[in-house]
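Chapter summary example.
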Amino acid sequence: MNPLAFPVEIILEKPSDLDKKADRERVLDYLSQTIDAELPIDVDLDVLRQLPSFLRQSNYALRLVIAELRERLEVVAAGQTGCYGIALDLGTTNLVASLIDLSTSAKIDVMDAANPQT
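The structure predicted for these 118 residues follows.
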């Protein structure tokens, strides 16, 4: 399975007098070292606004959700406990939707129906 969004657990070093990088750069440096990505990585503006408080509340250990968006990867959520996706199979006779836990790739539930276009 190759999902368009996936969770990543990060554990960052705390800022110090010798390392005063911004939180965004700290996160992006960590991701560029741990994710084998050929696409550039950025942080969504809403996530960026919440990132400092999330990092400090979690003692710099945090779960991020990264999505592939138009030729780049983007951190779209932070601090989420679950990460779920939906797989759709739009067949000529049946429609099937599966709820997937993206952390474990486990199928949570499946719903199917006859395709009304048949």
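To summarize the output: The mean pLDDT is 90.
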